[in-house]
Amino acid sequence: MATTTLGRRGSAAPHRVTAPRRRRGLVALLFLSPWLAGFGLFFAYPLLATVYFSFQRYDLFTLEWVGLLNYRYFLRDDAAWTAIGNTLWLVAVMVPLRVTFALGVAQLVTRLKAGAGLFRTVFYLPSLVPLVAGTLGFVYLLNPGTGPVPALLSALGLPSPDWFGDPDWAKPGLTLLALWSVGDLMVIFLAALLDVPRQLYEAASLDGAGAWRRFLHITLPVIRPVLMFAAITGVIQTLQYFTQAMVAARVASGATDSAGSVFVPGYPGGATLTFPEWLFHQGFRDFAMGYACVLALILFAVSMVFTLFLLRRFRDTEEDA
Amino acid sequence: MTLTAAPARPVPAARPRPPAGHRRRAALTWIATHALAIALAIMFLGPLVFIGLTAVMTDHQALTSRLWPEQWQWDNFAGIFQRAPLLTWIGNTLLYAGLATAFTLVSSIPAAYALARLRFPGRRIAFLLVITTMMLPPQVVAVPVYILWARFHLTGTLWPLILPMLLGDAFSIFLLRQFLVTIPKEYSDAARVDGCGEFRTLVRVILPMARPAIAAVALFQFFYCWNDYYGPLLYAGTEPGNWTLSLGLASFRAVHHVQWNLTMAATLLAMAPVIVVFFFAQKAFIEGVKLTGVK
Fold first, then answer.
1. Are the beta carbons of A140 and B45 separated by less than 8 Å?
2. pTM score of the predicted model
3. Region Disordered: which residues (chain B) (predicted)?
4. Which of A261, B26, B114, B295 ranks highest by number of CB atoms within 10 Å?
């Protein structure tokens, strides 16, 4: 790089470079200014305001300092703890299953000799289906009496649960939906798998390593960064899990939108109440906005822990850029 | 043809013929993997097929477990437009998705360019902040932002979802940045030597090369808005005239009790545009998804 004409020009006149460099800094500032304004207005300021409101009782009209009352209320808010339990269940079950399943499907696609592209398209397609539409579809598919899945299960002589109507089966039902729409993760893994140098496999085969050992000792270590990234973003996304739980509960409970009644998420029996849903309900349906801010700060703290893992990764890649 | 664009795979070099036992095992593996792939494909496509079949059933049959329509009731697709203000919802959704996408591109492309290709103090921190805002749940800052829009009397409309896109979208900036750093430095250096300013370099040299990434970001943003449920639920209010398709769809069944056939017809309507566009722009989608995976 130092031997190119451009490099030599730069090093020959170091003091002349500073003026363009400062100008470039100004240009960068100009290009970034919309985002900087957005960062301040829609992130930095609201984050500070969230801390402030968490010490207030606020319902959009009256503001009253209540100290730690909202925090104390959280400790004995049973619904909040139900929501935490459900969200942790989803993180612990859904994320590992999704990563494993996506990796399995991607691995399968790499081994297909015929129609690999077609199969990739088919496996990717469901991840494009709008969340609300996909959720409605799954509630119908698993609906006892009308859905094809219970019909199929009973034709095989297997018992079929009441999925989205049964507190024990609602979250597994949502997990099936999450596995169905695993396509974008699969595409990421597929790209990573196809990037693994072939020579590594060939060398290992000559050494007599079987398929499983090759996977364990070559594939996994090489694609580990991609897997880690997918797992961490998966956890953060699952901490935000909202739409599917909301829509499934709404449709399965048969709630009607009559005037004056507010739909309480979580049907059946609080089994699908996620943490962001409870935050939403407290803040924007019950208008306990101060208390919602306490919940928001908890969500912030937990998500931030996982975000820091990601930031460390990106800080490192920036170094060699 | 675009449909079957296979992932690039190096062609294995010709090898000495393996012994017969080996070959039989290879054939069995071939059959097993393809059979598994077909079984999986049926499971992935099955839900879409059943949604489609239910959408054309009679009201009566949709309440039974018989899967094949005895009478193909195509009227259902016309029926849903009479049952709900679908055209209004589609119009609102197009307005939201269209404006938000245009605003996102205008505000995010220069920001991504600065992060990827300009050297300036604080660049690394700015990039890390972009990732942080991209990752953190929107619910974290929802309360003060809602209050802000309430002050401007814009709650009850979709504008609180559209206007912020003028100030950049973290995910789009991130994705574009990931693409822009892969363009060799020599291109912008050459442009600078020719006397192009940064703005001209961006527009004349970088943008044409970044077209695939810009297409991916535009598609992602458009369909993110098309699919968005949380945003409209928070801001669109209780007046159905302001709802988007996703929001209306979620309450479709609640308003008109158990009419699975009509609900599935509406569901199909909501997913059709995404799937149609996907088949025309598959490459942009797949390349965009790969960019989100990072290496």
1. no
2. 0.88
3. 1-20
4. B114
